[in-house]
Specification:
The structure holds two protein chains of two kinds.
Chain A: H1 2-25, H2 35-74, H3 84-89, H4 93-101, H5 108-117, H6 124-135, H7 140-149, H8 154-163, E1 175-180, H9 183-187, H10 190-201, E2 215-220, E3 232-234, E4 237-239, H11 244-250
Parallel strand pairs in A: 1-2
Antiparallel strand pairs in A: 1-3, 3-4
Helix pairs in contact in A: 1-2, 5-6, 10-11
Chain B: E1 7-11, H1 14-18, H2 21-30, E2 35-38, E3 50-53, E4 59-62, H3 67-74, H4 78-81, H5 108-113, H6 118-121, H7 126-136, H8 148-157, E5 164-169, H9 178-185, H10 187-201, E6 205-210, H11 215-230, E7 238-243, H12 253-260, E8 284-288, H13 289-301, H14 303-307, E9 310-311, E10 314-315, E11 317-324, E12 330-335, H15 340-347, E13 357-362, E14 368-371, H16 381-387, E15 395-400, H17 405-419, H18 425-442, H19 450-463, H20 468-472, H21 475-483, H22 485-493, E16 508-510, H23 519-523, H24 549-553, E17 559-561
Parallel strand pairs in B: 1-2, 5-6, 5-8, 6-7, 11-15
Antiparallel strand pairs in B: 1-3, 3-4, 9-10, 11-12, 13-14, 13-15, 16-17
The chains are: A alpha+beta, B alpha/beta.
Chain lengths: 255, 562
């Protein structure tokens, strides 16, 4: 990297000197001058010419060096640019939705659901499901409001919401990608699919959502489409008979 | 002009939709056909499926239909549409699946036209119904195989004024999808079965508990209940659908009741059994989807017809979800007593890509692996139990010689460990310790006494757990240890995975077959294969993540697994 920079700047410098000399040489007309002055100008010209010769050699060498170093760095192109899909989609109106929802949550939905489903303990799971479907996770404020409105205690809410796999306590990305890890999908390569998707979306280890918060990756037990294994589900759309490459293409249904 | 077909059916179950059946349906409609959207007839391996019914009753089935083929099918140009497939694979008797793929699940008239709700309308007395179910020999299809007639009789004998019936559609076994398909393709049948059960035991309220992963099944069941109520077929019975929230253990009946009550789905000590004290402390009858779907047929055709099928203590038919390395995956219904080999080879069409049949995994995380040499075992509750596996709910995953049995055991243990509710110490901690040992083995870091330790722990876990999940959790480990001990020993002593599956124990190498085409270098997601056209490629072992993509990309079979 450093060597490329040095060689590159040397090339630029040499070209600049040569251009400057050329400009100086063409500045004043040579004829109609006193002989003494003509001699001086000729000497200066000869000096410049020999210097330019040296500069030209340096330029050739520097250009050669620059090309060599730069080629070493460019190397082969990456087969698939990570996150290309994400970058294409990242800015957009829907991002502001998640951002705007965070500071102040509209809790009227919770009230509406409680009046519709009921306020007894038995309503806990249907209520949590409704909240999860609406907010796409279980926001703390919504759960607090739920406890105020119903007979369900905070301890019960905490217990139930952490027990069941479908409930999330943290916000999820714009789209949910459920990769099936059932038996049939496992033997057909579900691990490779998940690994490739993680790489493709550049999701860091230990996390399930990419940096732009577009895709949340979830491993689920079985989607029940075993004869199409391996399978994944993007939002409500199922895609089957995947390979790692087509799995990445399957995300495009969201675009 | 050619005569128009009587009807054109397209399978719009979950797997059909996933294969693009909706686009095909639209193409058929655009081409001027009147299309009936049906569920799935079980031939999932050929989705999208289009069936053309002629006036003389003949049915032509077209498989893997594309949008282009759809036009040709409507215009009756068979040779352009691809020839119709032969008749579906021999499947013995269709009892539970008799309407699947034939009727429109969202149209109650279709179901009524095929004797639907006739069993309910026959108005048998509760005692007559229970006698018929008992006599038919129907056993619970959810896995445990408890005689259904006896369960119903116990529920009826309870003196309580309020009783409940629950249909258990929390099909959590990975690799099983019978309940999804039945609920999606023929929901009225299950509604009728539940209504008959409610009538037999004297219940006035019923619930469907369906997995949330099956949105289509939930929708179809809700629609079916609404239609049946509008027609006044259900009388005073009130039915409701509840969605699960993603816990495998809720398939256990006491845990399911806890979940319905809004609590954490943790099993309770039995007795009292749910038929004595269940939902809201009242007598509750819980039956699996398939059990209830068999009921209308038994009532209509008589117990004798059902009992005539099958062997010994296992009567009637069983639905299996065939999946894995098999040519014709899908849903099948076979009479009890058929052998595993007949199912895999005759119905399933053998192993994919001509590989060797190694084992079948039966019964999901509670079941076990039956090796190919025991493939002549008949499918009945007792014979399967002898092998160490169980009948289970009907997931049948076929494994070939490239599947590592230690890895399969690790996969199931990982599942049961993460799904253990945590109530019983042996299940909570024991499965964790067993999983650690299996992970160690898969990484080639096994310790000399690991196999003995696995067996001891397996014994503790199955004896020290309250519910079926814990009691049967060691089954995948025990059966693979019993039939494939040599593979465990190879992992342990030689640090080698004979099937070439465990990432930590394998390496990829380019053989002399390489022609330097760079396909593998392009496919490699981590750049472990340098881009060198016309030279033999090399896999950088340090960078390689064992993702197998190079081997799949190679056209010359030049990448081998060591």
């Amino acid at each position: 990297m450093k060597r490329t920079l040095i060689a590159g700047s040397l090339v630029v410098l040499c070209v600049a000197i040569l251009l400057a000399d050329y400009a100086v040489a063409n500045r004043q007309p040579f004829a109609n001058r006193p002989a003494a002055e003509q001699k001086k100008v000729t000497a200066a010209r000869l000096a410049r010419k020999s210097r330019d010769n040296a500069v030209a050699w340096v330029l050739i060498a520097a250009a050669g060096a620059f090309l060599t170093f730069a080629k070493g760095q460019i190397k082969q192109p990456k087969p698939r640019a990570a996150g290309e899909l994400r970058q294409a989609k990242a800015p957009g109106p829907h991002r502001s939705r998640t951002a705007a929802a965070a500071p102040e949550l509209d809790l009227s939905f919770v009230e509406e659901m409680v009046s519709k489903i009921g306020r007894g303990k038995e309503a806990a799971i249907p209520l949590l499901q409704a909240i999860q479907n609406y907010y796409r996770y279980l926001p703390d404020d919504a759960l607090r409001r739920l406890c105020e409105l119903t007979d369900i205690t905070p301890a019960e809410i905490a217990g139930t919401s952490s027990f069941y796999g479908r409930f999330r306590r943290s916000p999820m990305g714009e789209h949910i990608v459920r990769v099936c890890h059932g038996t049939a999908c496992h033997v057909s390569g579900a691990r490779q699919i998940t690994e490739e998707l993680r790489r493709f979306l550049a999701i860091p280890d230990g996390e399930d959502t990419d940096a732009a918060r577009m895709f949340t990756l979830d491993e689920v037990a079985c989607l029940g489409c075993c004869s199409l294994a391996p399978v994944l589900m993007v939002d409500g759309h199922t895609a089957g008979k995947l390979t790692p490459a087509t799995a990445c293409d399957a995300l495009k249904v969201t675009a | 002009m050619k005569r128009r077909p009587v009807e054109i059916r397209i399978g719009l179950g979950s797997c059909g939709i996933a294969s693009g059946a909706e686009a095909v349906r639209d193409a058929l409609v655009r081409a001027g056909a009147t299309v009936k959207a049906v569920g799935c007839n079980g031939m999932c391996y050929r989705e999208p499926l289009v069936e053309v019914v002629e006036a003389d009753g003949r049915v032509a089935t077209y498989g893997n239909v594309t949008v282009e083929m759809a036009r040709s099918i409507v215009r009756r140009r068979g040779w352009q549409a691809g020839y119709p497939l032969g008749p579906p694979a021999p499947q013995g008797h269709r009892i539970v699946l008799e309407n699947c793929g034939i009727i429109d699940p969202l149209n109650i008239d279709d179901y009524l036209a095929r004797d639907g709700y006739r069993a309910l309308a026959m108005g048998l007395s509760p005692d007559a119904i229970i006698a018929a179910i008992t006599e038919s020999g129907l056993r619970g299809r959810g896995g445990a195989g408890f005689p259904a007639g006896r369960k119903w009789g116990l529920a009826r004998a309870q003196a309580s004024a309020v009783k409940y019936v629950i249909c258990n559609g929390d099909e959590g076994d990975p690799g099983a999808f019978m309940d999804r398909l039945v609920l999606e393709s023929d929901p009225h049948r299950v509604v009728e079965g539940l209504a008959i059960a409610a009538h037999a035991i004297g219940a006035t309220e019923g619930y469907f508990y369906i997995r949330a992963e099956y949105p289509l099944a939930v929708r179809h069941t809700r629609a079916a209940i609404q239609q049946a109520e509008e027609r006044g077929l259900l009388g005073h019975l009130h039915l409701e659908v509840r969605e699960g929230a993603g816990a495998f253990v809720c398939g256990e009946e006491t845990a399911l009741i806890q979940s319905l009550e809004g609590k954490r789905g943790m099993p309770k000590l039995r007795p009292p059994y749910p038929v004595e004290r269940g939902f809201r402390g009242q007598p509750t009858l819980i039956n699996n989807v398939e059990t209830l779907a068999s009921v209308p047929w038994i009532i209509r055709h008589g117990a004798g017809a059902f009992a005539a099928l099958g062997t010994g203590n296992s009567r009637g038919t069983k639905v299996f979800a065939l999946a894995g390395k098999i040519n014709r995956g899908g849903l099948i219904e076979v009479p009890m007593g058929m052998t595993i080999r007949e199912v895999v080879e005759d119905i399933g069409g053998g192993i994919r890509n001509g590989r060797a049949f190694k084992a079948v995994q039966l019964g999901g995380p509670s079941g076990g692996c039956i090796p190919a040499r025991l493939a002549d075992t008949p499918i009945d509750y007792d014979a399967l139990a002898e092998t160490g596996a169980i009948m289970g709910s009907g997931g049948l995953v076929v494994l070939d010689d490239r599947d590592c049995m230690v890895d399969i055991a690790r996969f199931f243990l990982k599942f049961t460990q993460s799904e253990s509710c945590g109530k019983c110490t042996f299940c909570r901690i024991g499965t964790k310790r067993m999983l650690e040992i299996l992970e160690r083995l898969c990484e080639g870091k096994g310790r000399p006494d690991d196999l003995e330790k696995l067996e001891t722990l397996a014994d503790y876990v199955s004896r020290g757990s309250l519910c079926g999940l814990g009691q049967t959790a060691p089954n995948p480990v025990l059966t693979t240890l019993r039939y494939f001990r040599d593979e465990y020993e190879a992992h342990l002593h030689q640090r080698r995975c004979p099937a070439g599956r465990c990432p930590a124990l394998i390496r990829y190498r380019v053989t002399a077959n390489c022609i330097g085409c760079t396909l593998c270098a392009q496919a490699c997601p981590v750049g472990a294969i340098a881009y060198r056209p016309y030279e033999k490629h090399e896999v950088d072992d340090q960078l390689c993540t064992r993702c197998d993509m190079c081997r799949q990309a190679c056209q010359d079979d030049a990448i081998e697994v060591l």
